[in-house]
Amino acid sequence: TAIMMVDPEGALVSIDPTMPTNSPKVIYFCLFAPTEKEDMFQNVLSQVAEQFSRAFRINELKTEVTNRLAMLEKRVELEGLKVVEIEKCKNDLKKLRDEMTSRVGNCPCKYNFSDDGKKLNPRRDVPSYPKYTLSQETIEALKKPTFDVWHWEHNEMLSCLEYMYHDLGLVKEFNMNPITLKRWLVKVELYKSNYLNRLETSTRSVCVPQEKMTLTDMGILMTAAVCHDLDHPGYNNTYQINARTELAVRYNDISPLENHHCAVAFQILSLPECNIFANVELEAYKQIRQAIITLILATDMARHGEILDSFKHKVDSFDFTNEEHVTCLKMVLIKCCDISNEVRPTEVAEPWVDCLLEEYFMQSDREKTEGLPVAPFMDRDKVTKPTAQIGFIKFVLIPMFETVLKLFPQIEEIMVQPLRDSRDHYEELKQIDDAMTEKKKTENMSLGGKKK
Questions:
Q1: Which residue of 155, 292, 313, 356 is most buried, as measured by CB atoms within 10 A?
Q2: What does the record give as cofactor (predicted)?
């Protein structure tokens, strides 16, 4: 570095022995002037610093670009999942249209379920059955055994059941979305072969204990009663096991039908648009699910004696705060829902008896064709309506309902006495049938004697 000296006026001063002495009047200033090499070095340092700064900016830019790319990839992934979900919904809608079309056929109703490229009607995201305003007379009739399901259309019954869920306080208790309840009812109805009958019986048995049971228990019982026969194939467990059907193989011969009903029920509830328990906390839902499964499995008649004996041991000291006692009661009540047809008046109950006997006869005919064992009470060549009903009422229904009567005395008039009347009715029919049979035998013997 070069050193220069200047006076106060800025003029250069030659540095030599003859220069004036520095004094307050004559002040010299030293200036340091960089050399050419130092200038070059400073330039190099400046360029290096600039390069480093640029490199850091490039790294920052790369980081920012990488982050933005990651965000874009995430968005693309989410959009892709949405597309997949939309396609799944479209496929579900197509299946539903096809199923409705196959069930409705050429019905000239105002709703169009065909997949012709048009939107499904009605266009609102609400099930298609019309909303009925139930009269007070209908509401009261729903609570009585005399309620005649033969006078009601499917859509009307759906509205009745929807009303029951609201009236019993179940929609509020489980925080159900009312539209989801509608969707669930429509979906369940597609799987019900004897839907109308089950709705009415489930209502009566649920209404009886509502003052002594919690709303959660009421909701479990009601839902299990509605779902306990979903997708019934028309052939009982004995046939399933003997014929080694797919259901028997799947469930290892253990209550094949009841396990299947449970599976179908929770397949429906697994659909977000049909999950009436969607707003229930996870742990509570697990308990509800287990309780519903327990009740549906209890409808296997092979367990009838076991369940009724357990209830008989508890009924005299029954405790509504005891969970085991209440579970046993619910199991008995859903059995009442399942087999209480004879509680109704004869004109309402008898058509269902005819339907049931025809189902039995179809099964026994098939068993004979396939070389399988045939139950005597299902053989059209051995059973009559009176003989079938008398034994069932005397040895199954009356003992069960009389045991329930100990807890709920109010069912004496509306349920137990009608069962006794029904038993008497079929015993009278049996006497008439026996008299007719004896008369025919006498006539045949007389004709035989004349021929000789």
A1: 292
A2: a divalent metal cation
* Residues 263-309 pLDDT 10s: 999 999 999 999 999 999 999 999 999 999 999 999 999 999 999 99
Phi then psi for residue 236, to 5 deg, are -75, 180
Measure the CA–CA gap between 441 and 438, rounded to whole angstroms.
Answer: 5
Place of tokens 């003997």: 242
Residue 326, token pair as written in the block? 């209440």
Cβ-Cβ contacts under 8 Å for 89 (sequence gap 6 or more)? none
Hey, is 31 helix, strand or coil?
A: strand
In this prediction, residue 147 has a pLDDT band, given cuts at 50, 70 and 90, of: confident
Task: Give the span between the Cα atoms of 449 and 451, in whole angstroms.
Answer: 5
Is 229 part of any known ligand binding site?
Answer: yes
Element (H, E) at 6: strand 2-6
pLDDT in tens, 313-345: 999 999 999 999 999 999 999 999 888 889 988
C-alpha span between 186 and 145 (Å, rounded) = 25
Kindly report the three-state secondary structure assignment for every residue of 50-64.
Answer: HHHHHHHHHHHHHHH
Distance CA 198, CA 203 (A): 8
| Cα dihedral: 373, 377, 379, 385 (round 10) | -170
Whose structure tokens read 């039995």?
360
Among 251, 245, 408, 281, CA closest to 336 = 408
Q: Is 228 annotated as a binding residue?
A: yes
